Amino acid sequence: MIQKRNANDGTVLVTRLIILTHPGHQLSQPINALEKLLLLLPTIVYLIFIFCNRLVYNAGILIRFIHAKAITLNCMLKPLFFR
Questions:
Q1: Domain residues for 61?
Q2: 16 contact partners, CB below 8 Å, separation of at least 6
Q3: Is 27 a domain residue?
Q4: Are 47 and 83 part of one and the same domain?
Q5: Count of structural domains within the chain
Q6: Predicted local distance difference test score (pLDDT) of residue 42
Q7: Residues 6 or more apart from 30 whose CB is under 8 A from it?
Q8: What residues have CB less than 8 Å from 13, skipping those under 6 apart?
Q9: In a domain, 36, yes or no
Q10: Are residues 45 and 77 in the same domain?
Q11: Does 20 map to a domain?
Q12: What is the pLDDT of residues 15-35, one digit of tens each?
């Protein structure tokens, strides 16, 4: 799994992050703040995307519900005012 390449091309960083996601693997040295950020950033972006997606979905349901209630009230009140 660990590839021997130049450390400047990012392969070592990615390999270390892959090892972190598999329990039971031990790293030879602790991870630094940049590696922690690179590991957490996709998770945070994904959670924000899911949260916004659910907000838009729930807003659509709420708008349809309010529209249905408005049409119902319109049908109920129209005979009272327009005879």
A1: 41-83
A2: 27, 31, 35
A3: yes
A4: yes
A5: 2
A6: 85
A7: none
A8: 34, 35, 38
A9: no
A10: yes
A11: yes
A12: 665 555 555 666 666 777 787
pLDDT tens-digit series, residues 21-75 = 555 666 666 777 787 788 788 888 888 999 999 999 999 999 999 999 999 888 8
Q: Which two tokens stand for residue 59?
A: 């807003």
* Spatial separation of the C-alpha atoms in residues 16 and 79, rounded to whole Å: 72
User: DSSP assignment, residue 57?
Assistant: H
With tokens 């009140």, the residue in question is 77
Sign of CA dihedral 36, 9, 4, 29: negative
User: What pLDDT score does 65 carry?
Assistant: 93
Structure tokens at 50: 């899911």
Residues 21 and 45 in one domain: no
Confidence of residue 1 (pLDDT cuts 50, 70, 90): very low
